[in-house]
Amino acid sequence: MATISLCAIVKNEQNNIARCIDSVKKYVSEIIVVDTGSSDETVDIAENMGAKVFHYQWSNDFATARNFALDQASGDWIVFLDADEYFELEKSANLPAVIKKVHGNRKVDAVCILMKHLERPDGPVIAHTQIVRLFRRSRLIRYQGRIHEAIFNRGRSPVVVYIPESTLAIRHTGYSQTTLPEKARRNLPLLEQEVAD
Questions:
Q1: Which of 113-117, 125-129, 181-185 has the highest mean pLDDT?
Q2: What is the pTM of this model?
Q3: Residues sharing a CB contact under 8 Å with residue 120, sequence separation 6 or more, in sequence order
Q4: Per DSSP, which regions of 102-193 are E strands?
Q5: Residue 34 and which of 21, 52, 53, 181 are 20 to 30 A apart at CA?
Q6: How far is CA 143 from its chain centroid?
């Protein structure tokens, strides 16, 4: 049976990391958390939930940090979540079946899942996107992009299959009115550097 690694890169996510891990903990063989400089309880919470925590010196490059996390993982498939993302609990039980269905087809690199953006965990959905958060672990599959990073297979877009919302769905609380200004301040220098590059 194919194994699954949960990966996350985090910084000061003590309010989110437990919900993220809990949403898939039953279905993964390992939890890889890469901390980029937390000063709160994020690391302690993750370790207490069974995560292997690695420390990474932030270099203003999300793809590099994510690829560092991939290098620590050993599962056949990767679930890569941000700390403010989590699977809908009533559907996360379908994760092993989804992987079993695609694992034998070597042409398939990744699975595209519906992401619901919420103002808060118990709030209304404010937007939807289709996003790759589940993909095959391979040295050929790596993130690219200093910001708004995405996976590529040998520099090409991955071959993906789309999973209906009734099977899997992810919720995301990171675009709330309280968090957007902070993210904009963080992202602007990275976008400027990407343009310069």
A1: 113-117
A2: 0.88
A3: 173, 176
A4: 110-118, 125-136, 141-144, 150-153, 160-162, 169-172
A5: 181
A6: 12
